[in-house]
Amino acid sequence: MIKKEAKDKYTLGLELPTDPRWADMAGKNIHDVLVDHAYCEQKAASSCISLIVQYADKEKLVEVLTPVVAEEWNHFERVVAELKKRKLPLGKQRRDEYVEALQKIIHKGGSREEQLVERLLMNALIEARSCERFKMLWKNIPDKALAEFYYELMVSEAGHYKNFLSLAKEYRPAADVDRRWRELLEQEAEIIRNLTLRPDRMH
Ligand SMILES: [Fe+2]
Ligand SMILES: [Fe+2]
Q1: How close is the Cα of 27 to the center of ligand 2, in Å?
Q2: 7: three-class secondary structure by DSSP
Q3: Residue 52 C-alpha to ligand 1 middle, in angstroms?
Q4: How many angstroms separate the CA atoms of 22 and 170, rounded?
Q5: Based on the structure, what is the number of domains in the chain?
Q6: Which letter, b or e, does each residue of 167-199 get, where b requires 16 or more Cβ atoms within 10 Å of its Cβ?
Q7: DSSP H/E element including 20
Q8: Could you tell me the distance, in angstroms and rounded to a whole number, from the CA of residue 71 to the centre of ligand 1?
Q9: Which of 52, 104, 116, 143 is the most exposed place for a label (fewest CB within 10 A)?
């Protein structure tokens, strides 16, 4: 029942759905996808740690993001275990063109709070897009155990997306955050439109 509902949920406001061909391409290239995915989890954990260290004075942020670090690191561990199960090495981190493009659309100036909100929204975008990709993998890949894992991740990243958006509203007025969020959703769609669809990347 829950899974049936989930098919129509978890799009999280994204303006442009991923090209449906991606799921099949990625499913046939699971080693590269797992390696890239492992580093996505590592970057998610590192990004939360860096926010906690830089904004240690923000009690709510520390409270919300501390357990997220543990969850992202647990995801990393489990992706590494999936690689090990297949006798595949983790290998080196690959260039992340999606995150590089997002970094370019994030405003750099402004107050400390404004910069924080930009970073929180960028994290929310990555969570939303990852959630959408996990949903595609869950629904399409033939390996049932791995599909279950992707289902679980889809639910978890949707929770993180909500965490980042609600944290943003702690530090800037909700109307400003909503306006900026809509702007970023449009820009993110443009990034996805212009990125080459790759079988070896999560994004
Ligand atoms: Fe994760
Ligand atoms: Fe996440």
Answers
A1: 21
A2: coil
A3: 17
A4: 36
A5: 1
A6: bbbbbbeeeebeebbeebbebbeebbeeeeebe
A7: none
A8: 7
A9: 104
- Is residue 203 in some structural domain? no
Give ion ligand 2 contacts, CB < 5 A. 44, 127, 157, 160
Confidence of residue 12 (pLDDT cuts 50, 70, 90): confident
* Interval between CA 73 and ligand 2 midpoint (Å): 10
Total-model pTM: 0.93
In tens, the pLDDT along 179-190 reads: 999 999 999 999
124 located within any domain = yes
pLDDT per residue over 79-94, tens digit each?
Answer: 999 999 999 999 999 8
Q: Which residues of 107-137 are buried (b: 16+ CB within 10 A; e: fewer)?
A: eeeeeeeebbbbbbbbbbbbbbbbbbbbbbb
Which structural domain, as residue segments, surrounds residue 135? 27-194
